[in-house]
Amino acid sequence: MEKEIIEHGYSFNRRRFLSNLSLGVGSVALGSLLMPDLFSRKGGEADAMPLGVPHFAPKAKRIIYLFQNGAPSQQELFDYKPKLREMRGQEIPPSVRGTQRLTGMTANQASFPLVGSFVDFAQYGQSRAWVSELMPHTAKIVDELCFVRSMYTEAINHDPALTFLQTGAQQGNRPSMGAWLSYGLGNLNQNLPCFTVLLSRGIGNGQGVYSRLWTNGFLDSVHQGVQFSSGEDPVLYLRDPDGMNRSERREMLDNLSRLNDMSYQEFGDPEIATKIQQYEMAYRMQTAIPDVMDVSRESDAMVKLYGPECFIPGTYAANCLLARKLVENGVRFVQLYHQGWDQHGNLPYEITQQAKDVDQASAGLIMDLKQRGLLDDTLVIWGGEFGRTSYTQGKLTPDNYGRDHHPRCFTIWMAGGGIKPGIVYGETDELGYNITQNPVHVHDFHATVLHQLGLDHEKLIYKHQGRRYRLTDVAGKVVSDLLS
Amino acid sequence: MTLKIEGFAAKALWAMTVLIAFLLAFESHLSLPLWLQAAGRMHPLLLHFPIVLILASVLSGLLERRPLTPGWTRLTEILWLCSALTAGITVLMGLFLSREEGYAGNTLNWHKWTGAATFFMAAFCYWFRQNKIAKLPAGPLYVLSACLVVVSGHFGAELTHGEGFISEPLRRNTETQNVPIDQALVFDHVVSPILEAKCTGCHNTEKAKGKLVLTDSSAIVKGGKNGAVITAFQPDASPLIERLHLSPDDKKHMPPKGKPQLTPDEEAILVAWIKAGTPYRLKVTALSHQDTLGLLAQKKFSRPSVEEPLPDFEAADASVIEKLNHEYRTVAPLSFGSPALSVDIYGSQAYTPKTLEELDPIKKQVVALNLSRMPVSDADLKQVAGFQNLRKVNLNFTGITAKGLEQLTALKHLQTLYLAGTKITSEGLLQFLSKARKVRSVILWDTGIAADQIANIRKTYPGVALTGDFSTNDTTRLKLNKPLAKSDQWVFDEKTSVRVYHPVRDVKLLYTTDGSDPDSLSKTASEPIVLNSPTRLRVRAYKEGWLPSDVAEFQVFRNSFRPDSVFLLNRLNRVHLAEGAHTFFDRQLGAIGANNPAWANYFAGVRNTDLQLLCWFNTPVPLKTVGIRLMVEEETGIYPPAVIEIWGGENEDKLKLLAKDIKPDLPEPREKPTLRKIELPVHTTVPPKCLKIVVKPFQRPNEGPKLVLIDEMFLN
């Protein structure tokens, strides 16, 4: 045998090597004829799609994201777990809990007693979705909603989790979802910002929201979210100073833009061009914003739909009504935050109040969009940044308990925008601690949302400091089961 | 000669191996000339060669030890070479074919990689036989190749014939979607699918709950353990329908609680079918359009399952589109590469009929038009009717009427129409729908077309989705929210006025000033309420058709003597500084809630020292009371002070104790946070020019002192 190997070595001589090599190179050359752009430098950029146009026909044109900041407890709202009530006070089985990290708030807790919901649940609609008594209005419209009970995230504390859901990264220097949409799709109405932010607060334990959640990150600053405040001036610094009329303003802007243009010609800094655009938009917003914000012409029917708080600026209900008015006027992305869902303790009282704040207005918004025919192409999302634990934080008393942060499962709902209505997707185990079916990661969620707006999440790319970035980073899959 | 050909073929095989590996590695960059696409389509023809050849090679390889004829080994070798070559060509063609539209998904991936593996395996088998370098057992290699051929072939078959092609005859065909309406039977294609979706999960031949089987007509006639479930022509007397109508909580309700329930339409179909005498062989087309069953059955079939593809029209010139875009008009393609355009118009003040006229150059390409809230009149719709390819028009809250709508019948492709908030009438809409055949959805909310009229239109046009009002018979009365109030001076010296208001229109606001609850006999707050003493203003809102609101309470405070200068003798708590000593006389009321700016800015406090505040007045003040407004929040340790002392005199060196309070009203554990006013009467004959106010934090034995947070002080 050894001899044969040596002979084989001799037989594989230089001539044969070279002829095989040339054949191989020839084949590669032949193959490369079929790939005209393989060796050109375009590469990734060729994959990126042109901006301002959906990559494919979109189902949704606009998004309203009803962010429930602080992480609402899924066990008390949408994820019905009767077993938790049966096992009240018992230790969570180690097989269920596993070995993953806990927050600093409960990691040192001596025991982890399970606790069930203090409210009852019932099934509603055609879809027989379980909804708790805390959400009576939402229960009425379950057939419009798509519940995802198997969302999960990677972060365990509010700020990173919130930042992760909004920007696709935990650290917070990336563009927000709304900024990506503004970048990828552009404005529908040139007189209003593409991406607007509305804040409200419940009485529950609150967590801060910061302007970096609606940041443009490394994108042009024109894509930044514009916060509308509830005071006299919805958009700050928009009003003309006392004593200046509109024609003087116009003249001032014209001169200013001439100056800006000169420096743009000289330095070529794109931020200068952005600035010129922003001045112009602000000028147009001076008339467009009061028109949108005016609720005085809304009928009593609206109050019945959204609840009587909808005319009090700064409430969640008012923001929902405003969100409808904004999307009706062509705003692409309306981001609401309702603070106060962080029930580490005193959960029964606080969550009841929080649910009261949002239940009617959220359901009202869906029906209002539907009756105007806007729900078909408006995607509404309701949810927090993570879930809450099945065991109690702190002491379990007969009428009081709390729940800690739980990134391993939480429930959100979506409606409209080509999302399948009347379904409940994903499942958690009977203790509501781990996902047992159809997990949906934050990146998958982002990929799905972008897909509904006609954007391929792998092709919505921005090159920054030598790296190509996406909202979904390097992961994410469209959850096609959710699409109608 | 054979040797030469074989050598040539072997080289070709090597080249092909490299080529395929290369193409697979950079597949995403592949772009094919047309003639290669044509070659790709040869794949389904060619693939039969490698299948047969590889199987033959495997067989021949396995029989090698007992050759049937001389030269068997040589024959096997050539067979393997041919197998590998044909497999290679097939893989190449397959790769080309896969680049065509409509090939994607998991099955394709599996087929691609198993197919490529088959080729590499065949090539390896050939080389392995040529150069026996390793001591690999040949048998298993051959068997593996055979398996790969079978697996890859199977995936290929699934791609061409659809998934589950082989097992299809074994399964029962339940698909009805594809039955054309003229062949559809009422029972087989309308009634039976409902039973199958909602009933036969339990009532089938295997499970037969209640001994009832609903899978075929004879079993349905037979009924269950309680006899027949259907009485022909009498739905009310049929247990099948009875069970549907029971309360969902009833044990006998079907389908059982928790299982998918029947939709109203499905229920109506079953009822109508029984009413019609349970026809089993009747055709759907034989039903009259006026008949309930006929309408429902038609509706089931009339629903378009897929959106109609766009007709071919050329794209408009990019420069034209760009020119038409301005601040109040957005013209954009539906998606990348699509010639279809969508137009959105905003800014009702900027709108003129010209806004539409200018769109003439792209009238062929516009498929979606949004005119919502624009002052569009019937006359403008003539222009809209010229956009021949329109699919979707949004006319919500515009000035159009039924007359204008008539013109839109010219739009042959119109599918979705938004008419919310317009003056459209039921007759006008009926007339429009009779001509606009393609319309699938109309938004009719807030139009004055009543719910029963909408129901009528629905009956005539079951294929059209009509969106009306959702809360027609909603008689629940909502509770008004609390009234609100504004005032320039919540803390005043002589008098102040408070304006109470409510965001809901036409609300009656009734109030009291004596601390009692307002009722329907209380005073009406139509104008600002003028107050000249410290008051608890209690207001309640009333409106017809609504429940009255809860009582809102607003407090005004009086501070007659504002010190001319103030000074703190001790330091405030480091994080509760606010505006220092001025905080207590700034006339700004604090509020509860750590996130509220009024919390951080209007409360100042002490914990580890006493608060000692000196106040000077330019002229002596006839002081009668000293009031202190403070916050109490048990949970976070904000308590009322243990001791309050008021000292007064001519200057800071000649102070006498004027008043003292040593009985703090301590909060209960977990008591809700409150704002309190503690008032001390002052007894002095000589009006002081200087005051010293001392506040000592409360402290329990063996615990740290509690925080005292003071909002305002009232000197009267």
From TrEMBL, chain A:
InterPro entries: Alkaline_phosphatase_core_sf, DUF1501, TAT_signal. Keywords: Membrane, Transmembrane, Transmembrane helix. The chain crosses the membrane at residues 21-39. SUPFAM superfamilies: Alkaline phosphatase-like. Coiled coil: none annotated. The keyword Transmembrane applies. The keyword Nucleotide-binding does not apply. This is DUF1501 domain-containing protein.
TrEMBL record, chain B:
Residues 199-258 form the Cytochrome C Planctomycete-type domain. It holds the Pfam family PSCyt1. Residues 42-161 form the DUF2231 domain. Keywords: Membrane, Transmembrane, Transmembrane helix. The keyword Cell membrane does not apply. The chain crosses the membrane at residues 12-36, 42-63, 75-98, 110-128, 140-157. This is Chitobiase/beta-hexosaminidase C-terminal domain-containing protein. It comes from Ravibacter arvi.
